[in-house]
Every structure is written in C-alpha cells, then in structure tokens.
Design brief:
About 25% of the residues lie in helices and about 20% in strands. With about 230 residues, the chain is of the alpha+beta class. It has one domain (about 45-225). The strands form four sheets. A three-stranded antiparallel beta sheet has the order 1-2-3, with helices on one face. The protein has a three-stranded antiparallel beta sheet with strand order 6-10-9, with helices on one face. A two-stranded antiparallel sheet has the order 4-5. A hairpin with a 5-residue loop joins strand 2 and strand 3. The protein is globular. The N and C termini lie far apart (about 105 Å).
Length: about 230
C-alpha cells in the first residue's frame, strides 16, 4: 500500500488565512457603521427658468406675469408612503425664496405631501388638480367657483397644498374637491391636513404669507403673499 504524505501547511499560508478571516469579519462588523454614514434625505431644491412644456395651458396671452417672470422649482418632499419623492412647482420669481423656506421647514418636519406636479400636467384645470390631491402654485385662471375674478395663482405667488385633505369651499358653499367634504371637520386628525400652529402655518406666517383657512368661506389648501 502506498501512503501519500501531504505537504505541511506553511506558516505564511496560515497567516494569510487568518488575515483574510479577520478582514472578512472586520467588513461585516463595519457594515452597520457604513449604513449610518449614508447621506440624510434633503430638500435638494433646484431653481431654473420655465420651459413652455412646463407651462402648457397654465399660461396664455394676457396673463399678468410673463414666462420670464416665473421660475420652476424642483425639490424633494415626503410622500404619504413615508418615502422621499421629487416634485415641481412653477412660481413667480419673487416667491422662490419664501416658498423654499416653507417647504424646507415642511421637509425637515416630514410633513407629507401627496404629489407636487405642475399645472401643465392637468391641462391647467384646477378642478382636475384638486381631485388628484395635487400641490401646485402658478396657474393663470379665474377663481374656481367665481369666474368673474382672477385667481391669485395667476400671479404665481399663491400655493395650494394637499387639496383633498384641505378642501376649498366657494361662496356658494360648494366643496372642491367634492371628496374633500369629509375633511371639513378640522377637529379630526388626518395625514397631510393643515392645522393652525403646525409646521406649514408657522412657516407661512414667518414669510408673511396668509392662509385661506381663516376666511369665512374657508380655503384650507390655499396660501398667498397678499392674503387673496
């Protein structure tokens, strides 16, 4: 019978195996620390000129603000699902700074926003945007429910936030969107609802914008620079 003798493991191979094992363990132990070093979610706002595609039917000849006086804000917001989402607002250039402050405070507080899409995606229809629970700003149009008056949104210094949870009641008592009627009882707590003294109303107060929720025909979604 032939006996095969195995070569002994050399010390340097033992050392190499031990080093590799130690490196692997170090990597496993370091993984949680690496996770903690990931960048925190941020507003990441970018401000640019507005393209015709982003205006669509929300602008037309005769509007009080020319396209060159408007800006597109792209920024993050917290969604109703607890994830960071990307949104867009078209605003008057003078409204950029106050709204960045407001939405920056909202983001830091994780105030949820359903979606934030430009009005061009709704063909300029305020009714359609409200039904979709959309947050938006510029839209050159008449007041919804009162076609004889021009909306402050036409000037780009008004914003509507979470339109379903914060419905609008016109002077005839009609509720927009209709599904928002169940949120007229402001004593109830609901995700995305704007309430006196919350992060949205406090931030808006800081920048001098007024809340339509204080009107006798309340517009809970609406804030504007001049209170109209």
């Amino acid at each position: 019978m032939t006996i095969t003798r195995r070569s002994p493991i050399r010390p340097r191979r033992v050392i190499g195996l031990a080093a590799a094992t130690a490196a692997l363990l170090a990597g496993c132990l370091a993984a949680p620390a690496a996770a903690h070093s990931l960048p925190k979610p941020a507003l990441n706002a970018r401000v640019t000129a507005v393209s015709w595609a982003k205006l669509g039917r929300s602008w037309h000849t005769g509007c009080p603000v020319a396209p060159r006086g408007l800006r597109l804000i792209r920024m993050n917001h917290w969604g109703f699902d607890g994830r960071v989402r990307s949104g867009e607002l078209v605003v008057r250039k003078e409204a950029v700074r106050p709204l960045l402050y407001v939405f920056g405070r909202a983001f830091a507080a994780r105030f949820p926003i359903r979606q934030m899409r430009v009005m061009a995606e709704f063909g300029g229809s305020d009714v359609a945007a409200m039904a979709a629970d959309n947050t938006s700003a510029f839209n050159c149009r008449a007041v919804t429910g009162n076609p004889s008056r021009r909306s402050q949104h036409s000037y780009g210094d008004a914003v509507d936030i979470n339109t379903l949870e914060n419905p609008y009641v016109d002077t005839h008592g009609r509720v927009y969107p209709a599904a928002g009627a169940r949120y007229l009882d402001r004593r109830r707590a609901a995700k995305g609802m704007i309430r006196p003294g919350d992060v949205i109303t406090r931030a808006m107060h800081t920048v001098g914008w007024k809340w339509g929720g204080r009107w006798w025909a309340p517009d809970y979604q609406h804030f504007s620079a001049n209170g109209r």
